[in-house]
Amino acid sequence: MRARARLVLLVPLAALALLPGCLKRSPIAETWVLDPVAARGASSPDEKAVVVVGVLKVAVPGWLERPQVASRGADGAVVADEYARWGEPFARGVQRVLVENLAALLPDRRVVAAPFPPSTPVDHRVDVTISEAARQADGSVLVEARWALVGRRGETLVQRRSSHRATPAAGVAGAVAGTSEALGALSRDVAEALRALPLPPPGEDAAARK
What we know:
Layout: H1 2-17, E1 30-32, E2 52-55, E3 68-72, E4 78-86, H2 90-105, E5 110-113, E6 124-135, E7 141-150, E8 156-166, H3 171-196
Parallel strand pairs: 1-4, 2-5, 2-6
Antiparallel strand pairs: 3-4, 6-7, 7-8
């Protein structure tokens, strides 16, 4: 009789849990992507561009390469927002944005993303390592990176550091927009350095440019 009495009590409780208003719904996570802000309103790249710029896979620290949008706490701690998710791997998003920004800033050059097709000769490679890319405790968004421009034969042509800070609106939307804005500034640094490099001699054998 004791076991049967427990069963009778459990059935009404289960039914009560299914009534409207008795179940708590978890917040739905929002999905975000970075935006190539330097490409807004830019003219189309020159289809006859001869010089090819290749953006290598971007290196990011492990605390950024996660599904959640992360920020920095007052003590430097990493705070991950479980209800704000990246729509693509963070490193891949940064690479995509750099390609789009550089294509807009350098319309006279063809900009491609690694991995490069074997048939695509690459004149200058852009190698970027991100060390910081998140909202800080003071509300600003900080993007810091080491980057290099590499020649056809693997020689380092330029090696620099960039640090850019944006002060966007509050919330996740502001943090993502601020990161995009700072990446736009990083793209302009890289574009300026690429413009300063001498163009490769015309008519050089394509095999030497791979």
